[in-house]
Q: What sequence folds into this?
């Protein structure tokens, strides 16, 4: 009798497990990135994102390294640089009204003053796009794509942008490391963390 009930319990358990297996939904695969012709304009129109990372710049014999925090909100860019040239933190804000440094009002000579301070002229208006691996839609560009149908190199406004590495971000891929260079100026950027709402 004991063997009989044992077999009944085993049989019922097998039926229940089989039913669970039959009704279990299939695993959801990661969302595939869009084809380039669709994802490029989508990234160019992205209005809210941020990243944390590190930058190293060299221009001739001058150079510096800094941690960076980039915040993009619509057409407003905020870039925190911590440690360039050992002078502590600087906050750059680029809005439709112009470029300001450390909370000062935008002025026409800020770009020149910033270039003298950092040794390089940061193309902030275009860099917001290059960081996403796409060209600035306001200027002509030449794009070389890699085998995964993502930008490998961008040529734009006299700058060469090489995306050395991509990282997965919420089902898509965004640059994890890139180099921006022009006429003896070279800026390397490594992204440690992306916040990119889909």
A:
């Amino acid at each position: 009798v004991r063997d009989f009930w044992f077999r009944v319990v085993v049989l019922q358990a097998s039926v229940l497990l089989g039913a669970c297996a039959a009704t279990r939904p299939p695993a959801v695969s990661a969302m595939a990135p869009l084809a380039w012709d669709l994802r490029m304009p989508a990234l160019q129109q992205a209005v809210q994102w941020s990243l944390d990372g590190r930058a190293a710049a060299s221009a001739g014999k001058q150079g510096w390294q800094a941690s960076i925090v980039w915040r993009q909100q619509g057409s407003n860019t905020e870039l925190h640089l911590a440690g360039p040239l050992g002078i502590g933190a600087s906050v750059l804000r680029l809005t439709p009204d112009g470029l300001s440094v450390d909370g000062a009002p935008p002025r026409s000579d800020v770009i020149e003053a910033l270039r003298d301070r950092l040794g390089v002229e940061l193309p902030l208006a275009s860099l917001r796009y290059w960081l996403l691996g796409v060209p600035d839609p306001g200027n002509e560009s030449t794009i070389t794509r890699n085998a995964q149908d993502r930008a490998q190199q961008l040529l734009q406004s006299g700058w060469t942008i090489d995306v050395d590495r991509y990282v997965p971000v919420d089902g898509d891929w965004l640059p994890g490391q890139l180099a921006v260079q022009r006429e003896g100026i070279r800026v390397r950027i490594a992204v440690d963390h992306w916040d990119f709402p889909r």
